Amino acid sequence: MDTLRRLLQEANHTIIFTGAGMSTESGLPDFRSKDRGLWEKFNPSELANVHALLHNTEEFTNFYRYRLSEINKYQPHKGHLILAEWEKTGRIKGIITQNVDAFHHDAGSSNVMELHGSFRTFHCHNCHKEYERNAYLDGQTTCDCGGTIRPGIVLFGENLPQDTFRKAEQEASKADLFIVLGSSLSVSPANMFPLVAKENGAKLVIINRESTDYDMYADVVIQDKGIKSVLVELDDYFRFTE
Ligand code: APR
């Protein structure tokens, strides 16, 4: 932790990169943790793609209404709030996230690049008419045009939002410190950003309960502590020493 503290204090452009492990301490499951990841219970190839939306529509809609109802049960934890505070004080410059729960946004972070979209918006897959989140929860799942209403998240096989992707690429290239919080780094192209940062001279930190294929490139790897406790410990240190 001492090295991480020093890196954070010395850095001028720290970028945070989060995955589902950032939200498990809020109560949400991640995707690939042994025995409790979402993909242990549901098969993403049957649910999380456009083919499922078009040809397995009822199961697709039930799955995403289930995920939205789960997200609605929980909220950002202290770690999300600390990151939002650090952005306000300039300690970090932005967050690149794979998460669709919008918890960084809800915690008050502003420079948040949601690579995989979020459950904040819903639209018809056919005509792109926008719909309210509550209408989707209340059961409205078919558009007036007959198309399927879907969340504004990126499904497997779809392109990432290009503007967000380009912005994340710029931020990762500018970073002199790049901190991964709670991602297996197993999904592309999101998993390219730690190397984009590293190749542009950044120090790379990976805080994740399990090892990742990118640990060999990291300057610091922390596996023995949960993300929330790492962020709280760092924040307490900064509060009492700066
Ligand atoms: N502290 C530290 N690490 C944690 C914690 C925690 N409290 N909770 C979980 N983790 C770690 C897990 O060990 C796991 O390695 O977070 C990692 C989460 O990895 P994944 O479940 O694979 O989630 P993620 O990397 O975000 O998945 C990327 O895959 O299915 C798609 O679109 C989906 O955005 C998602 C993408």
Automatic annotation (TrEMBL):
Its main location: cytoplasm. It is found in: Cytoplasm. Binds 1 zinc ion per subunit. Its EC number is 2.3.1.286. It is an enzyme of class 2 (transferase). One of its GO terms (cellular component) is cytoplasm. Zn(2+) binds at residues 124, 127, 143, 145. InterPro entries: DHS-like_NAD/FAD-binding_dom, NAD-dep_sirtuin_deacylases, Sirtuin, Sirtuin_cat_small_dom_sf, Sirtuin_class_U, Ssirtuin_cat_dom. The keyword Transferase applies. Its cofactor is Zn(2+). NAD(+) binds at residues 20, 24, 31-32, 98, 100-101, 116, 183-184, 208, 227. It catalyses: N(6)-acetyl-L-lysyl-[protein] + NAD(+) + H2O = 2''-O-acetyl-ADP-D-ribose + nicotinamide + L-lysyl-[protein]. Keywords: Cytoplasm, Metal-binding, NAD, Transferase, Zinc. Residues 1-242 form the Deacetylase sirtuin-type domain. It comes from the Bacteria. Nicotinamide binds at residues 31, 100-101. The keyword Transcription does not apply. NAD-dependent protein deacetylase which modulates the activities of several enzymes which are inactive in their acetylated form. Belongs to the sirtuin family. Class U subfamily. This is NAD-dependent protein deacetylase. It comes from Pseudogracilibacillus auburnensis. The lineage of its organism: Bacteria, Bacillati, Bacillota, Bacilli, Bacillales. The gene is cobB.
